[in-house]
Specification:
The chain has four helices and seven strands, in the order βααββββαββα. It is of the alpha+beta class. β3 and β4 form a beta hairpin.
Length: 173
């Protein structure tokens, strides 16, 4: 789900949009597979010995567990986006209730990234953005192609600071 056009400011353009690396879905995917295997085995084991209620209960419990362990983590991943525009960074998240955080590029003081061993193998990392506010820095977890994203953010931050610098008194531009 991308940043809605109605949320864009005048002259603002989306430079890049991303979500966390797909690695966060590995465990929910495995849980879903195991759950479906166990449910299939249980339904097959019950077979024609039991009445239809036993199979129905197993299927209902498996469906509820599948939603909790697999579908909700997928929706959480799919709906949690990071959008980089030429003016700001926007984080949006939430399934039923949407929340977000916006950091204007001209308020950003520091941009760095962290990569652990497994992040290096998968080509992702965490981007940490510090701005001129009292809030803790914004951490964008498991961003794919983190070096490229870091370069893009840093370049836009430098451009934002260059265009918004005040001209010293007595000098003209």
């Amino acid at each position: 789900m991308s940043l809605s056009r109605k949320l864009l400011l005048d002259g603002e353009e989306v430079v890049e949009e991303t979500r966390t690396h797909i690695k966060v879905l590995f465990v929910p995917f495995l849980l879903g597979l195991v759950l479906m295997g166990v449910a299939g085995f249980a339904v097959g084991f019950i077979g024609s010995r039991g009445d239809g209620w036993a199979r129905g209960i197993v299927i209902a419990v498996a469906a509820v567990l599948f939603v909790i362990t697999t579908l909700i983590p997928f929706l959480r991943w799919y709906l949690w986006t990071y959008t980089l525009t030429n003016l700001r960074i926007v984080e949006q998240r939430g399934i039923l209730t949407r929340t977000g955080r916006v950091i204007p590029l001209m308020r950003i003081n520091d941009v760095n990234y962290e990569k652990h061993l497994n992040d290096r193998l998968l080509g992702c990392g965490t981007l940490v953005v510090h701005d001129a506010s009292q809030q803790e820095g914004l951490k964008l977890h498991d961003i794919p192609r983190i070096e490229r994203f870091h370069r893009t953010v840093s370049g836009l931050v430098f451009d934002a600071h260059d265009t918004h610098q005040e001209v010293p008194r007595g000098e003209s531009s």
